[in-house]
Specification:
With 279 residues, this protein is α+β, with helices and mostly antiparallel strands. The chain contains three helices and 14 strands. Strands 1, 2, 3, 4, 5, 6, 7, 8, 9, 10, 11, 12, 13 and 14 form a 14-stranded antiparallel β-sheet that branches. The longest helix is centred in the N-terminal third of the chain and has 52 residues. The protein is globular and about 55 Å long. The chain starts with a helix and ends with a strand.
Length: 279
């Protein structure tokens, strides 16, 4: 009888230790996944911000094209770096402008290479115009972008601000080698400051899109409250977006308006993690 009791005690102890070990392993796995999610989101947000900021190059081109303003055409051109070669071709009422950043072009402390091409209707009086923006091996601080966005640009919305509705069909390679596609729709509203360079203008962003990686995972992203990129700041400073990956979901919160390079991930169990925004 004593042997049976002793054996039962051993079995119970073994099961208890195994359960605790499994819980510990599970916690470590969850922590590991959270670290992976955090690092990946830092890279995805950085790549996303790059794509959005290149819209500003179109407004620089329009400024250069118009030529008449309070500033001279030469002053306008300096908004793009000297290492960016700009060429234009006009066919009927369409204009195609190519910006070639070469192999390594430094612009506002960022390193760029590759080509961006804009094709658009020339008529400056159109209230709406369609712009096609294409990336050809465009690399921004180690992130490679290819593909096309089709933009319906409205000269002024109901509040008097320029607005763009964009259809996105892009492929990206992140710094860690992860390749993915990005498809979706975004609406961007611009708030230009005449005293600030176009590429440092304020804008807000809404929309939704899907990311599908070559290794099989996918994420769907929905902007829950409009993202805001403040004037003269390189990062989103407020707004939230919801990210869903399979059965897991988390929120990305960009803060209270401060240009502080930080965002907060909130996971389904309520735990939070701060990530560093980068370019």
């Amino acid at each position: 009888m004593k042997s049976i009791v002793y054996l039962r005690s051993l079995v119970f102890a073994f099961l208890l230790i195994s359960a605790l070990s499994c819980d510990s392993d599970k916690d470590l796995t969850n922590d590991f996944k959270d670290e992976q999610q955090s690092a990946k989101m830092e890279q995805i947000i950085a790549a996303d911000l790059v794509v959005e900021d290149t819209d500003m190059y179109f407004d620089m081109i329009i400024d250069m094209d118009n030529g008449a303003s309070d500033r001279s055409a030469n002053e306008k051109k300096r908004e793009l770096p000297d290492c960016a070669v700009v060429t234009s071709v006009v066919t009927n009422n369409l204009k195609t402008v190519t910006i070639d950043f070469g192999d390594a072009c430094t612009f506002d402390e960022d390193t760029l290479s590759g080509v961006i091409t804009f094709t658009f209707e020339r008529d400056p009086d159109l209230h709406q115009k369609t712009i096609t923006k294409s990336f050809a091996d465009f690399i921004f601080n180690g992130k490679t972008i290819n593909g096309t966005t089709t933009i319906l640009r409205t000269k002024s919305n109901s509040e008097g601000n320029p607005q763009s509705t964009k259809s996105i069909d892009l492929s990206m390679i992140l710094e860690d080698g992860t390749s993915m596609t990005k498809n979706g729709t975004k609406i961007k509203t611009f708030y230009f400051d005449p005293d600030a360079p176009k590429h440092k203008a304020k804008y807000t962003l809404t929309g939704n899109w899907e990311l599908v990686a070559s290794d099989g995972w996918s994420k769907s992203v929905t902007i829950a409250t409009p993202l805001v990129k403040a004037a003269r700041c390189k990062f989103f400073v407020s707004g939230t977006m919801d990210v869903v990956k399979g059965d897991a979901a988390f929120e990305v919160d960009f803060g209270d308006g401060s240009c502080d390079r930080e965002a907060t991930l909130t996971f389904a169990d309520g735990t939070t993690k701060t990530i560093k925004l980068k370019r």
